[in-house]
Amino acid sequence: MSDETIVALSSGSLPSGVAIVRVSGSACSDIALAMAGGLPKPRIASLKRIIHPEIYEQLDSGLLVSFPGPASFTGEDCLEFQVHGGRAVVEVILKALCSFENVRLAEAGEFSKRAFENGKLDLTEVEGIADLVVSETEAQRKQALAQSRGDLRGTYEDWRQRLIHMRALIEAELDFSEEEDIPDEISKEGFAKVSEIKSEIDSHLADNRVGEIIRDGFKIALMGKPNAGKSSLLNALANRDVAIVTNEAGTTRDVLDVHLDINGYAVIVSDTAGLRDSENLAEVEGIKRAQLKGSESDLVIWLTDINDTESLPKLNFEDVIFLKTKDDAAILSNGLSISTMTSHGIDTLLNTINTRLINKLDIGEAALISRLRYREALTQCSEHLDFVLNNDSSGIELKAETLRHASDCVGRITGKIDVEDLLDVIFSEFCVGK
Fold it and tell me: Could you give the CA distance from residue 208 to residue 213 in angstroms, rounded to a whole number?
């Protein structure tokens, strides 16, 4: 436990009706005594006059709540001052708190980092909290909440413990094979269970990146020839003028993103440069970026002017919707066509996008992989288990060591082992006060 006590505004931007100033560390009792006349009863909000500890001037009046450790968010003694949310009020209270010995302003994510270090949270729960704080859609909120309450931790810790048990069975034969109470070839039980857990991990990995898409957004690229109506569609979907629209071909040179909420899912729609042969260096670069964006997207909408009689191209993207544009007279009333002038077909297009999105993302209530680092670690774990299962000529010592590497891969996800290099990156995602 750190000797330093940390303080921060944890309730968001000012001014506000109420501001919450959080304190965590061993100085909480001294702070409560000097600034509020003593500690209130645990978890019961008490109205207090907030006093400067040196000049004894009243700074504000507000509620004080005490959370004695280890039954607190950080596992340390904690206080929360609920005061008026003026900038001057919060500033003077923070300065007063920092006047105590070994008390300082918290760094970004430091409260959550202490919760992790004190065993209150594992890394998946910590990252779930970070995602919950910044969630913008209902799907993001539900996924982050499930992760913050330990759904992934339970799954991964179960795998890690089972791998450790398997390794113990194998090493029992290796170390005590001559003992009468150690059955011959006891490691066979361990190897049989390796196949079970590998199957579970591979099934978990075969999720079409659903968790990552929910967290980061379902990516849609608008593609087609110049003047096909891509920028006009982007503006229509965003309900505002995001992209410049002119009759001049090749106006769009870079990728322009708009973030939408479609039925509770985060969707990122990207307007891209029109695809054609060009000698303009800026346009050529824009076309390269358009092609890259298409290959990285979950869905490509290929726009074609309704008056364009050329055959539709054969595209090598994961999922494609072919869309006729500028159908101002609703000629293709039974087909997928739009007019941004009359709004014809926009609702149909949105429904089609929603159907594609749900088909890709709806896999039930299973805990989902939400970050690339989880996927990489589990992939490595599966590769280690594959080696154990499919290399009969390898000695039992090598297989036992490979199982150790497999369990370590899972342990790195939750923070059980060897994660010091990850901590600064993970906690830097948090806002100050969390």
Answer: 9
Domain boundary, last residue among 90, 106, 122 = 106
- CATH number of residue 307's parent domain: 3.40.50.300
In-domain check, residue 118: no
pTM of full prediction above 0.90 = no
**Alpha carbons 416 and 410: distance in angstroms, whole number:** 9
- Print the domain residue range for 218: 214-361
The reply to whether 434 falls in a domain is: no
pLDDT tens track for 102-131: 999 999 999 999 999 999 999 999 999 999
Return the beta strands (E) in 144-189 as ranges.
Answer: none
Domains of the chain: total: 3
Report residue 318's pLDDT band, with 50, 70 and 90 as the boundaries.
confident
- Specify the DSSP class assigned to residue 303: E
Q: What is the DSSP letter of 337?
A: B
Buried b (16+ CB within 10 A) or exposed e, 287-323: bebbbebbeebbbbbbbbbbebeeeeeeeebeebebb
